[in-house]
Fold this protein.
Amino acid sequence: MAVTKISLIFAISINQLKKKQMTTTQQITISDVATNVINLVKKALSNSPTGVTFFSVKNYTNKFGEVSNQKINVGTNYGKMKLKDIETLQNLDITKMQWKSSMVDIEIARTALIEAFISPDKARSEGQTDAYTVISNGIKVHNETGVLYLYGYRVRKTVLVEGIYPTVKSSASTIAKNELRKLLRTNKFVNFGLEVGNELTASGKTLSL
């Protein structure tokens, strides 16, 4: 029985090792379109001696039809902004401000936002991670579609065409949280997905994807 048990454990260990080797040697496929975008952005970054942190996106159209020009800073540290927002919420005297929501809902929302900042959801799919090539902080490219994703702090936004937004019936909790988020720095962090054919400006140079 002891010999059988040892043999079984050895067999399981060998299978686990094979699976680990297969996972380690698995290659990530990057399409030609994505490769071109990756090389274009890397070249723009390398041409800047101080590093590119500001990107200007012109005629950006969101899913609601809104068209805007926006400038974002991908170099802004989200973690530092989050710490400042936690401090803002902790020191906020809600009795000295005007709210659409009730004081009770605002206080519950304030506590919930603090807890969410302190204990964020860290779940992340490895499949989603492998789907992108991370070029720099706040800059990544989808390995198949070539879509360029920029994540950063919005410095400026100019709406050129108003979008048509659906009417959403939010809960009292959500409405209260949204009121508080208007006071927070992290609320200005945005994510753009720019498909091939779009243009953006980095360090005064126009990049045509």
The two ends are 65 Å apart (CA to CA). The longest strand covers residues 148-161. Residues 2-12 have pLDDT under 50 and may be disordered.
